[in-house]
Amino acid sequence: MSSFKAVLIDKNSERYGADYVDMEEGALMPGDVDLDVLFSAINYKDGLAVTGKSPVVRRFPMIPGVDLAGRVTRSTHAGFAKGDLVVATGCGVGEAHFGGFAQKARLPGDWLVKLPDSLTPARAMAVGTAGLTAIFCVLALERHGATPQDGPAVVSGASGGVGSFAVALLAKAGWRVAAITGHAAEADYLRSIGASEILAREDFSQPNKSLQTQRFAAGVDAVGGVTLANLLSQTRFDGAIAACGNVGGMDFPGSVAPFILRGVSLLGVESIRPRIALRREAWARIAADLDAAMIDAMCEIIPFDQALERARSIVTGKIRGRVVIEMP
User: Fold this and answer.
1) In Å, what is the CA distance from 16 to each residue of 5, 22, 50, 236, 322?
2) What Cα–Cα distance (Å) separates residue 63 from each residue in 11, 19, 105, 175?
């Protein structure tokens, strides 16, 4: 039985730590599909898992990495055959089931989606959970009935992974997009991926009136907290905000005023459950709406031996866009 390289998180009464290790394939968790992992990616949740700053990991030891793309090496699942290129995101991967920071993975086939022909494994990871969450938000807004003709859209946390893809996907769909960022130096980057207007994070990060001037017809909020409350307070009649993040805090210091006086809707978006039909729709939409050059502009590819360092840095806000890990 061959060994493979992985990052492993473990804890005991004295230590919580993440280290590079060699593992045996027999240590992999149950699943009906085996993969050679080709690429993974660093998400904020991976940074929390690696550092232990939040109780993300639900069993120990754990291989982190909520995203992975790979090639099937063995399958007893009817939907997949040896050689298929597949992608997995969410579904407890990297939290309760060994994840993508490893050369090998074994997963239930019901968590996997075949890669669209136009997406390479590296670009699929450049999209990853961040892009998938962003398109889930766009689809939620569209199901709500929001259209670009209703007015401008807004994206908070716009220079992060989810925010970057939300800006690009909304712009591709025809929206005029206002991008909120705390990094003024990212203005050119955000305009290059579709933002029409750059707004300062500090203008949304302090408590304000429960009803403010109506500015936005729709939005994607990747921050939460006070920022979400302010976005809702500035949303137009019958508009909607799709909320998917909490880097600004889990508390919601908001008011019912936007909901009952302007008919504003708050659309909750999560990207954990399998919901394979929705995932297939989302990946097909991503493949159709994002060109390769745009995906490449949003990501950086690093070698596996830098994964831990960069995962730790994401929790301090030092990563722009997406960081993709290439497996050795």
Assistant:
1) 20, 19, 9, 47, 26
2) 13, 10, 10, 39
- What 3-state DSSP class applies to 312? helix
What's the CA gap between 272 and 187, in Å, rounded?
Answer: 31
Structural domains of the chain ordered from first start: 3-115+298-326 (3.90.180.10), 129-268 (3.40.50.720)
State pLDDT tens for residues 205-232: 999 999 999 999 999 999 999 999 999 9
- Pick from 65, 25, 308: nearest CA to 57: 65
Burial pattern 111-123, b for ≥16 Cβ within 10 A else e, equals bbbebbeebbbbb
pTM of structure: 0.90
Here the tokens at position 316 are 């301090």
Would you state the structure tokens that stand for residue 19, as one six-digit string?
């280290």
For 107-141, what is each residue's pLDDT tens digit? 999 999 999 999 999 999 999 999 999 999 999 99
Query: Are 35 and 81 within 8 A, CB to CB?
Result: no
- The whole-angstrom separation of Cα 184 and Cα 159 is 10
Q: Helix, strand or coil for residue 154?
A: strand
Place of tokens 């955000």: 190
